[in-house]
Amino acid sequence: MKVRIIVATILLPLLPLIALVLPKIVTAFVVAGFCTIAAYELMVTTKLVTPPRLIIYGIVMAFCVPFWSYYGEQNEIAVGGALAFFTLIYSEILFSKGKIPFNSAAVCFVAGILIPYLFSALVRIMILDAGRVFLLLPFTVSVLSDSGAYFVGVFFGRHKLAPAISPHKTVEGMWGGVAIGTIGVAVYGLVLQLFAGMQVNYLYALLYGFVGSLFGVFGDLSFSVIKRQVGIKDYGSIFPGHGGILDRFDSLITVAPLMELLLLLIPFAK
């Protein structure tokens, strides 16, 4: 736990720097780097994809996808890239004479396009009007609900949430995380109102926090299922005490696109 807290203490101050200070293109590169590592973890660490060329295709595509979101109006680049990726992957299957199974191609698609596209919601939020101030929103929901669930579970957890998938998660921890995540978004809204002069709908803010925290649990368990099925403890070790990108940001991958959708449909602050 000590190492986990130290690493989190180092990482958390970096989020405002990336979100509010660095040029937007730098943030896009950071997201692209995370997507690249996540693709590697899902394909290589799990050993779900073994053909070297498929791994290379997936990693390259994962790096490119966030820039599709950054240059959002140039749809021809995204369509061309996706078509090229599809062609390369299926060419490998067709000419492998049955040596490359469809499962490898499917995981490559998930690692190269689906997860990076979901992760790239951070980039799409950033380029919205006033997107800079909203970029920390997915992290607020994800980090607070994750941390809340962890500590509430440690001290008060009695009933297992999904023992076959994640033995240490508890029902009490989950709802504690949801409560803390929900309150956290309300506080986030208060900060926007006081320091950015924005009008905040606190009912919507509570909705963001509640639904977002639940989606975070879903993302967490979704990636835990894969680990259990392939028999690994962590996807990587880039963050000591936390694991890899997919260990630390599993909930963010589902929370970020949800926050993007809610900001587009029912913005809680203007």
Would you give an account of this structure?
This protein is an all-alpha fold and 270 residues long. The chain has one domain (2-265). Helices cover 75% and strands 3% of the residues. It contains 13 helices and two strands, in the order αααααααααββαααα. The protein has a two-stranded antiparallel sheet with strand order 1-2. A hairpin with a 3-residue loop joins β1 and β2 (166-170). The mean pLDDT is 89.
What distinguishing features does this structure have?
mainly alpha; two-stranded antiparallel sheet
N-to-C SSE series? HHHHHHHHHEEHHHH
Q: What's the count of strands?
A: 2
Which stretches are low in confidence, meaning pLDDT under 50 for 5 or more residues running? none
Q: How many angstroms does the end-to-end distance come to?
A: 39 Å
Structural classification: mainly alpha
Main sheet: which strands, in order across? 1-2
Beta percentage is under 5%
Instruction: Classify the helix fraction into a percent range.
Output: over 70%
Gyration radius over CA:
19 Å
Output the number of helix runs.
13
What's the structural domain tally?
Answer: 1
- Average per-residue pLDDT, rounded, comes to 89
Shape: globular
What is the element layout, followed by pairings?
Layout: H1 2-11, H2 14-21, H3 24-45, H4 52-70, H5 75-94, H6 102-119, H7 121-126, H8 131-134, H9 136-156, E1 160-162, E2 166-170, H10 171-195, H11 202-230, H12 245-248, H13 250-265
